[in-house]
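Try this one yourself first.
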């Protein structure tokens, strides 16, 4: 069944995947107090190594990128060594794994890094409190200076180098879901009046600088990007955002990334200003490898791939509920339904 999903897929000259299933990046908040991956995390990822590619849970590039408890990092030697054990275990089982590189921007909280402020494109805060730590209210961020922006770009590239040192096959830059890079890409959160704001070209500048610095550090064939053109999480949409993404996607088309990944929880959502689904919008404006995600079953994913709507499918919640998701789909065994209670343990 679903034969197209089990075909090998050649991402580029360096990387060929065993099948078209990606394990979506899934924050689990289970790293240790030093944000180092644990033995339980090693076992969790190794159990899912049959995926064509695992994308790690979002992993912070530096301390002030942290917005949730116990999210792993890639900025200390101990974190690199911890991830090395995870990547070795996945490779031993024949799998591949990318690190998702994360800075939460205005969704960060100084509680986690004993800091004074959080950095964002502009001093525009998010409403509300930190999930799982409701006593912590979000703060109004500090608008990053140009020197701070340059430092952030360098820190993404450094984290990418650290990821390669840790044995990852590549990195997916987290440019989605209302976090730092996405905050530059939407009018709701980017009110800058310098060369990082106000026009599609300026608003895309930070994202492209991060992408280009990462490519320079580890190569385009090992660099991927996740984007949310439809602001739907930690953010409000503005119809003008469309022009920013039209411009950005055209620019990305020239860069031969490993893949581009839509950041969505539910890809059946339709956005007027994108003329429909996010995946369809991205396919129209981007010709490289495209990853669909958000509420897909093996059936609907196989159909979408057969119809050419995207090339690869990322699976999130069903992979939490079914460590042996790939084997079950291959054999036609029924899948266990996901429930939020499953987030309490790392099975
Ligand atoms: C997520 N998602 C997510 N996305 C991301 O880019 N980085 C992350 O760390 C996380 N973390 C995360 C945790 C949990 C518990 C959930 C449920 C989701 C989004 C995820 O990658 C995916 O886009 C959605 O889960 C939709 O896919 P499914 O679950 O419908 O297959
Ligand atoms: C991008 C997500 C990072 C989340 C970290 C916290 C983990 C808890 C996730 C709960 C998932 C619920 C998803 C519901 C979001 C719907 C958005 C429209």
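Now uncover the answer:
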């Amino acid at each position: 069944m679903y034969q197209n999903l089990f075909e090998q897929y050649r991402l580029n000259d360096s990387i060929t995947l065993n099948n078209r299933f990606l394990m979506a990046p899934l924050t689990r908040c289970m790293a240790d107090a030093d944000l180092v991956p644990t033995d339980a995390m090693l076992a969790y990822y190794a159990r899912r190594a049959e995926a064509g590619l695992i994308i790690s849970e979002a992993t912070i590039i530096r301390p002030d990128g942290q917005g949730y408890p116990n999210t792993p990092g890639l900025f200390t030697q101990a974190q690199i060594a911890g991830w090395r054990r995870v990547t070795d275990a996945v490779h031993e089982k024949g799998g591949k794994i990318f690190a998702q590189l994360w800075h939460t921007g205005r969704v960060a909280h100084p509680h986690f890094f004993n800091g004074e402020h959080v950095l964002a494109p502009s001093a525009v805060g998010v409403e509300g409190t930190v999930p799982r730590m409701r006593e912590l209210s979000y703060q109004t961020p500090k608008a990053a200076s140009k020197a701070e922006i340059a430092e952030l770009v360098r820190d993404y590239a450094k984290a990418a180098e650290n990821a390669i040192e840790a044995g990852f096959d590549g990195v997916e830059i987290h440019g989605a879901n209302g976090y730092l890079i996405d905050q530059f890409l939407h009018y709701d959160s980017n009110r800058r009046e310098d060369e990082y704001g106000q026009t599609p070209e300026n608003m895309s500048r930070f994202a492209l600088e991060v992408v280009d610095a990462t490519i320079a550090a580890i190569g385009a064939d090992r660099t991927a990007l996740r984007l949310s053109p439809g602001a739907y999480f930690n953010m409000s949409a503005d119809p003008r955002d469309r022009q920013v993404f039209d411009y950005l996607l055209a620019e990305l088309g020239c860069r031969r990334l490993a893949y581009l990944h839509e950041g969505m929880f539910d890809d059946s959502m339709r956005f007027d200003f994108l003329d429909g689904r996010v995946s369809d919008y991205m396919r129209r404006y981007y010709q490289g490898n495209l990853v669909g995600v958000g509420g897909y079953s093996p059936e609907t994913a196989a159909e979408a791939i057969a119809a050419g709507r995207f090339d690869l499918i990322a699976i999130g919640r069903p992979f939490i509920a079914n460590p042996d998701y790939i084997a079950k789909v291959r054999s036609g065994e029924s899948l266990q339904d996901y429930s939020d209670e499953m987030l309490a343990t790392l099975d």
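Discussion: The chain has a mean pLDDT of 97. Residues 27, 68, 131, 177, 232-233, 265 surround Octadecane (ligand 2) (CB under 6 Å).
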